[in-house]
Amino acid sequence: MSEPTKSISVMDKVQSLVSDKWNKDQLDLIMKTYAKDATPDEFMLFMSHAKQTGLDPLRKQLYFQKRNDFKNNSTSIVFITSIDGYRAIASRTGTHAGTDEPV
Known about the structure:
Elements: H1 10-18, H2 24-33, H3 40-53, E1 62-69, E2 74-81, H4 83-93
Antiparallel strand pairs: 1-2
Helix pairs in contact: 1-3
């Protein structure tokens, strides 16, 4: 008799994907606040994108948004990079001269 296959939750899959960057409590927080409308697959895609780009939703560098297309009766998802995210990317290049305060 074979052993029943254990069902792996989406959160466990996401945790294994990004465990080097975010812990389970942080992932729960991101899911409940920044990606609350995301399906499990969309959340996994969002966190995979965050890891690949090196952007952190908890630092308000990357946002999840679901958009409705009423004309086609569908939804789509977009990942929005904030100004802080763009600054983080620019800083990594080593050529960012810094950001001056507004005058």
